[in-house]
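Q&A FORM
Asked by: J.P.
Topic: structure of Interleukin-22

PROVIDED:
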Amino acid sequence: MAALQKSVNSSLLGALAASCLLIALWVQGGAAVPIGSHCRLANSDFEQPYITNRTFMLAGEASLADNNTDVRLIGDTLFHGVNKGDHCYLMKEVLNFTLEEVLLPQSHRFQPYMQEVVPFLTKLSNRLSQCQIDSDDQHIQRNVQNLKDTVKKLGEDGEIKAIGELNLLFMALRDACI
Ligand SMILES: *[C@@H]1O[C@H](CO)[C@@H](O)[C@H](O)[C@H]1NC(C)=O
Ligand SMILES: *[C@@H]1O[C@H](CO)[C@@H](O)[C@H](O)[C@H]1NC(C)=O
Ligand SMILES: *[C@@H]1O[C@H](CO)[C@@H](O)[C@H](O)[C@H]1NC(C)=O
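REPLIED BY: S.T.
REPLY: Here is the structure written out as tokens.
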């Protein structure tokens, strides 16, 4: 009798365990996990001494030409009110803008660094192409829009400033995406 009781209990436990597993699999497959998982870059992307040096050299050259010290594009304000888990997506948007609206129009300047850094950043941008978030991203878009507006308002000086902050962009991408 005791033995029968035991076997009933264990098969009940087995069924419970199986359904817990099913629920766990279902939650994992159906919810946000795959979406955010594309918002990732590899540690090794940021551990290449040569291209890191070129990126910082490019930023250094441009910041010499940037005489507006009052404005900071990549700083605390950019992340204000944005969840840590959404920082990589936010930086993806900033990177996209920087490539298309800053580096492309200035691509003839700051050689030879520019011609080496643009393909590197383009590669990172491509890696993040599937990075989406499932939450409402209005807040993120507003912060990104502020950055865009600041650059546009300053015109060419704004583009130079953004290039001068490529070192900050590099570090912010690293912090947000790995
Ligand atoms: C980059 O490398 C050069 C030598 O190739 C060196 O003079 C320079 O200080 C380095 N710059 C940075 C920011 O690492
Ligand atoms: C910054 O320098 C540019 C020339 O490189 C000049 O046109 C502009 O007026 C300067 N801005 C300020 C705020 O000094
Ligand atoms: C920027 O984003 C747009 C829209 O998602 C995309 O079509 C474009 O390829 C992106 N550009 C870069 C340089 O990643």
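FOLLOW-UP: The first helix runs from residue 2 to 30.
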